[in-house]
Amino acid sequence: MCVELRDYLFLPLKNKNFYFSITSEENGMFAGADKVREMANELGLKVVYLAKDGTVINKGSTVFEAYGTASAVINAEEILLGLIGKPSGVATASLKFYNKADGRIKVVCGAWKKVLPEIRPLLRHSIALGGCSIRMCDEPFIYLDKNYIRLFGNIGDAVKRARGYDPTRLIVAQLRGENIPINKEAEEAYKAGAKILMIDTGNLMDLKLALDVAKNNNWRESVEFAFAGGIKIDMIDDIIDMGADIIDVGRSIIDAPMLDFKLDVKSVVE
């Protein structure tokens, strides 16, 4: 048979429109509204309701209602759910970390840089919806990760070179204690002019060692300490108690599971 399967199946329904809704199967935060609206227009759907990005939802919450032809409804099921599942999952994870921190510490997720360029804007937006930051600080800064430090051979030379480019920008240095003890590396970074020291080992003892050298030598108030490396939500209280200023969360937010949604046909539109 030369006719397409769906064309054949839906031929008796060609003059009918069908009303449907998309509802959440879980508690969380909704994200992806702009993409849904854009695709709904492409599919020829008439939108009745679309939740706003950042809406906190519960299991059973309706996030989208529309009507269209049988073919458009089936296409919507195949496409629209995929546009909201992942961003809503990331927004939900961001919200959980933000609520757990409860204003006691800044939570950042910079791991969006590790995903496909095509979806980076959407995931950055989702992280921000949940309340976490996508940047280590709001003002202009230069970030020196482990490879810059490896290229220069030490943290001091890397920081000094970066400061020479623009002395007004903050220097953020990723510290891992690869060549010298982490407390020595932290002190070297501070003396060279770094203002945010990110202890990226996931080891709380490394954070303590870096903080202790700062406190004992009276430069603790001159810098901020960030902590990163496999951060889980149940670690937040311990990190705060240790005295960090910033937590940089990676996979626990960006690799959060999709929030589950379902699409249900409700009625024929007369």
From TrEMBL:
Keywords: Glycosyltransferase, Transferase. The keyword Cell membrane does not apply. InterPro entries: Aldolase_TIM, NadC/ModD, Nicotinate_pribotase-like_C, Quinolinate_PRibosylTase_N_sf, Quinolinate_PRibosylTrfase_C, Quinolinate_PRibosylTrfase_N. The keyword Amino-acid biosynthesis does not apply. One of its GO terms (molecular function) is nicotinate-nucleotide diphosphorylase (carboxylating) activity. GO terms for biological process: NAD+ biosynthetic process; quinolinate catabolic process. Pfam families: QRPTase_C, QRPTase_N. One of its GO terms (cellular component) is cytoplasm. Residues 90-264 form the Quinolinate phosphoribosyl transferase C-terminal domain. Signal peptide: none annotated. It catalyses: nicotinate beta-D-ribonucleotide + CO2 + diphosphate = quinolinate + 5-phospho-alpha-D-ribose 1-diphosphate + 2 H(+). Residues 14-88 form the Quinolinate phosphoribosyl transferase N-terminal domain. PANTHER family: NICOTINATE-NUCLEOTIDE PYROPHOSPHORYLASE [CARBOXYLATING] (PTHR32179). Belongs to the NadC/ModD family. This is Nicotinate-nucleotide pyrophosphorylase. The lineage of its organism: Bacteria, Bacillati, Bacillota, Clostridia, Thermoanaerobacterales.
